[in-house]
Amino acid sequence: MALSWSPCLPHTTYLSKPLSTSKLTTSNTILSCPFVGFKPVQLRNNQTRCHAVTDLRGAPSLNQSKGEEGDDHKVLVDPSTEEESKGDRIVAEYNWTEEWYPLYLTKDVPDDAPLGLTVFDQQLVLYKDGNGVLHCYQDRCPHRLAKLSEGQLVDGRLECLYHGWQFQGDGKCVKIPQLPADAKIPRSACLKTYEVRESQGVVWVWMSQKTPPNPKKLPWFENFARPGFQDTSTIHELPYDHSILLENLMDPAHIPISHDRTDWTAKREDAQPLLFEVTERTDRGFAGWWGREKDGSMPNFLRFDAPCVLQNNRELVDKDGEKHYFTGLFLCRPTGQGKSMLIVRFGGTKRSPLANIFPKWYFHQNASKVFEQDMGFLSSQNEVLIKEKVPTKELYLNLRSSDTWVAEYRKWMDKVGHGMPYHFGHSTISPPQLPAVVEHAPAGLIAGVSASSPAKGGIATMHAPNLANRYFRHVIHCKGCSSVVKAFTAWKNGFSAAALALTALAILASSRQWKAFLLVSATLCLGGVYACSTVIAMNTTNFIRVHRRL
Q: Considering the entire predicted model, what is its pTM?
């Protein structure tokens, strides 16, 4: 996946609010990493410059390669600042909890069941109460630590299905079935709550328990508020780290190769050098323009904002002089080591006529196909980063003509990575302190399907819980696609039964005309079975490249 994927993309120029520059403050943080340390050096303006002290004995650095390969510097990304050229690093004040994270598309939040989600390794439960108000808690019952996302809603209250404790909107326990009639519910029987806000069709959560929510940090997307703006939004759970996902999404160079002929824009013969111009760098992210070298222009505007918001924008003027705005928006939530969840939103003030011909589920399954085309590359990349435990500059060969945004992103992580649970920067790393938790029967994906078919945790089922499976990566998170699969499954069963009945009647019929009519009808029903099976497969079956098919 990357910066363009829809009939209305890759087109958009969007200059909204400038990146806010937070003041750099003195920090004595030394990264807890055996490979990279820092010597803080006090600067003016209350900044801290950190000189990198490395002990990297793995692959030779790119700087060493420059001495051996004199022409490498002409094609590889150069240091972007004077400090980087000197080996210095500016460390920005950053705390990953003091940010808004995209939880879910508002339209896909279940109305009748709690939803289990994570931000990094923090497990959350999201649900709507009886009045449709959203609430978010730590996904843990204070009684015996059972997951509340495996519970149910009773009269607008969240009930833990282990012992039946019930909690109301403010997190207070209001019912304990096992408590004597004359006893009071302990005051400590309450839940840790998180602030949630709904904005422009997305539910956001503020992760800090100490700092009040900062409404100024809540993202607002100008194009989505424009009159006539329409978008196609999908949500996907993916089996690789959110930093690798963001890299992939800000990499337009791979689209013609990896996604050749997947949509109307990707063709491998269009692979070519690209032009990039970085126009903003702050503690909150970066922004700039890009385009194809052969066009000699850079009409696309890319912006990355902390902690995990990426957008690619373009504006076009039609023959009548009317300006149209287009956006590709990517909201990437870290969901733990080697896992992420992505909300993709493509839209514009003018839609392609083709977008009105195809049903929405077609674009959703096409998006799933795009992610599956990259999945093998990105999962293996995730494994290498974890295994090698060195900064990306020791592993990547970033080209000026294709990888500028990737280098910018990893350099931004150098500045703020000390404030994250773990990170892999361009020159610094802070590996995860704890190993990833593997659940053999994943809980909390979505409680609404936990007691329905296909059974969650089931063995030998078509839809076994697995992030490599399209059904569990997308369909269970999307009300539209879930309804499509259920509806076409019902139609398939109906056509199958009708075909069987018509065939039986044809055998019993004595008239040739009736036999012919019944057999033709049965054949049409079998055609309906095939059509329904095709739609179901398109929504639930992974894409496999032709040369790897059995």
A: 0.82
Is residue 447 within 8 A of residue 116, CB to CB? The reply is yes
- Would the CA dihedral through 116, 117, 118, 119 be positive or negative? negative
Query: For tokens 């290498």, what's the residue?
Result: 384
Q: Give me the amino acid identity at 543.
A: F
Sheet architecture: strand order including 157-159: 152-154, 157-159, 166-167, 173-175
In whole angstroms, give the CA distance from residue 524 to residue 507. 17
Exposed/middle/buried for 528, CB within 10 Å: 0-12, 13-18, 19+?
middle
- C-alpha closest to that of 246 among 309, 336, 314: 309
Among the listed residues 314, 287, 348, 310, the one whose alpha carbon sits nearest the alpha carbon of residue 14: 314
pLDDT per residue as tens, the chain (550 positions) = 554 444 443 333 333 333 443 333 333 333 333 333 443 444 334 344 443 333 343 444 444 444 555 677 678 877 766 666 666 678 899 999 999 999 999 999 999 899 999 999 899 999 999 899 999 999 999 999 999 999 999 999 999 999 999 999 899 999 999 999 889 999 999 999 999 999 999 999 999 999 999 999 999 999 999 999 999 999 999 988 999 999 999 999 999 999 988 877 788 899 999 999 999 999 999 999 999 999 999 999 999 999 999 999 999 988 888 899 999 999 999 998 889 999 999 999 988 887 788 899 999 999 999 998 998 888 888 888 888 999 999 999 999 999 999 999 999 999 999 999 999 999 999 988 877 765 544 444 444 443 333 333 333 344 445 666 888 899 999 999 999 999 999 999 999 999 999 999 999 988 899 999 999 999 999 999 999 999 999 999 888 877 665 5
How many CB atoms within 10 Å of residue 327?
Answer: 28
Sheet with 88-90, edge to edge strand ranges? 36-42, 48-54, 88-90
446, 116 contact by CB (below 8 A): yes
Q: Give yes or no for a cis peptide into 307 (omega within 30° of 0).
A: yes
